[in-house]
Amino acid sequence: MDPASDPSSATLNREAPWDAFDSLAYSEHNYRTLRQDDRQIIEIVRDHFAAHFHGHRPGQPVTGVDVGAGANLYPALAMLPWCREITMFERSASNVAWLRRQVSGYEPNWDEFWALLLRGEGYAEVTDPRAELRGAASVRQGDLFQLPSRQWGMGTMFFVAESMSTSHLEFRKAVNSFAEALAPGSPFAAAFMENSEGYQVGDHWFPACAVTRHDVEATLAPYSEDMQIVRIAPPEGDAVREGYTGMIVACGRRGAV
Fold first, then answer.
1. Per-residue pLDDT for 6 more than 70?
2. b/e sequence 99-123, b meaning 16+ C-beta within 10 Å
3. How far apart are the C-alpha atoms of 195 and 90, rounded to whole Å?
4. Which whole number is the average pLDDT over 221-245?
5. DSSP SS3 for 253
6. In the predicted model, what is the mean pLDDT of residues 144-150?
7. Signal peptide: which range, if any (predicted)?
8. Which end of the chain is least crowded, N or C, by CB within 10 Å?
9. What is the dihedral angle through the alpha carbons of 94, 18, 242, 38, rounded to the nearest 10 degrees?
10. CA–CA separation, 24 vs 97, rounded Å?
11. pLDDT-derived band of residue 7, with 50, 70 and 90 as boundaries?
């Protein structure tokens, strides 16, 4: 049996030092500037959401959720034109504190991310993204395995399900929980590190399980309609860290199941 699929030998989500997660170090390393792989992800997600809403802010904006928001704002910013409320759902106490500071007025490095989103239809209708994020977003601390069912009208989950334990069982449970939290017909975007071996943040090592495009597709497919999956190779000579082989982005709509 693969150790990562065996709950008795895996490092589980509850065993990792999430409250000691160094949010500042993580954000500085990953998002101080806009990397080429994140650029590709943002373009895919931006265009997916814009196409779903036909490039115009809906007359009745939906509620959105970013599951495992961590120290990353661009998934929430990608949902901003389409949402009246965005729940940024996060377990780590340190990440919760970081998110609340950023929501109150995010740092200038995120302007580059917003500028890329602005190239998509509908995003220019947000005239003051800092003010709109402050008004729409709320940060909620909690366990993603206990998300309510069919509550939100769109959702994102970036680098979470495969980056929280070494257990493939927990990976599948996390993806299922995310999908089940969305109402039927809701657009979603999810991103995953491919074949991740775990990662260092500050003074702590955090677990991951190695997943492939097949794993992502097999887990999301029962919940999805019109799903598209894209693999993004690490930029040559500029991988964000060691111990992974690429990134996987899945976009689609929550099915009726």
1. no
2. beebbeebeeebeebbebbeebbbb
3. 23
4. 94
5. strand
6. 97
7. none
8. N
9. -50
10. 11
11. very low
pLDDT of residue 9: 63
The domain over range 3-254 is classified in CATH as 2.60.20.10:
no
CA dihedral defined by 50, 54, 58, 61, rounded to 10 degrees? -40
Give CA separation, 172 vs 23, 27, 90, 215, 218, in Å: 25, 26, 18, 9, 9
In the predicted structure, residue 143 carries a pLDDT above the cut 60: yes
Q: pTM score, two decimals?
A: 0.94
Are the beta carbons of 231 and 250 closer than 8 angstroms?
Answer: no
- Grouping H, G, I as helix, E, B as strand and the rest as coil, residue 200 is strand
Burial 148-172 (b: 16+ CB within 10 A, else e): eeeebbbbbbbbbbbbbbbbbebbb
Q: Are 193 and 247 in contact (CB under 8 A)?
A: yes
Is residue 103 within 8 Å of 139, Cβ to Cβ? yes
Query: Tokens 């709109």 belong to which residue?
Result: 132
Per-residue pLDDT of 56-85, as tens digits, reads 998 888 999 999 999 999 999 999 999 999
Please give the Cα distance from 240 to 214 (Å, whole number): 23
